[in-house]
Specification:
Blueprint: H1 2-15, H2 18-35, H3 44-47, H4 53-60, H5 63-87, H6 90-115, H7 124-149, H8 155-187
Helix pairs in contact: 5-6, 5-8, 6-7
């Protein structure tokens, strides 16, 4: 069913290329009208107001929890993508991509929440900038490498190697975060029993 829809859209684009262009132009105009009504709020406290219950709950979650959950979701999501690619399942591919994306977002949130408090107030912008640069390089350089490798094999084989490397790296991160959590709990002094 999905394949038939995609083939139909491809044929439409080849036979009548103006139809998709017209559709894109209409959607762009409609979204442009909505975008003209948006307000720009650049203050941090306006973006995430502490009065919101969802923000209050977010503050209660430890950074380590975000990192562990993020790594787990990346492993699961990439595994789903690889299975879906081998089975040629478009729906499975998008589901796996969504799961892996949620994992990357959680891992990124956990990483930022771990390193930002360690920086001084005047150093935080630089620390966050470096974190973004590292993330972009971590996503971009392997994709460029995969582009070179696909010439020597198939797209599926390159995706499997790329996905396997991502799973290994996420598993190493998960193991490191879990070991750190265990060591931190072991170092905490035991609570003194209440005396009467």
């Amino acid at each position: 069913m999905v394949r038939e829809v995609i083939e139909g859209l491809s044929e439409l684009q080849i036979r009548r290329p103006w139809v998709p262009l017209f559709g894109v132009a209409v959607v762009t105009c409609i979204l442009g009208l909505f975008a003209s009504r948006l307000e720009l709020r650049t203050r941090y406290d306006a973006l995430l107001p502490d009065s919101q219950p969802s923000v209050q709950e977010l503050h209660r979650v430890e950074a380590r929890t975000f990192s562990i959950a993020g790594s787990s979701l990346v492993i699961a999501g990439v595994a789903i993508v690889l299975i879906a690619a081998s089975a040629r399942s478009i729906v499975g591919f998008f589901i796996g991509t969504a799961v892996a994306g949620a994992g990357f977002g959680g891992g990124f949130q956990g990483g930022l929440r771990t390193i930002v408090p360690l920086a001084g107030p005047t150093e935080r912008a630089g620390v966050i900038s470096v974190a973004y640069i590292i993330c972009y390089l971590a996503m971009g350089l392997p994709a460029i490498l995969a582009g070179f490798l696909v010439v020597h094999g198939t797209v599926l084989h390159t995706a499997q190697e790329f996905g396997g490397a991502v799973i290994v790296l996420a598993a190493l991160t998960l193991a490191g975060m879990t070991l750190t959590a265990v060591r931190t709990r072991a170092r905490r002094p035991a609570a003194c029993p209440a005396t009467r």
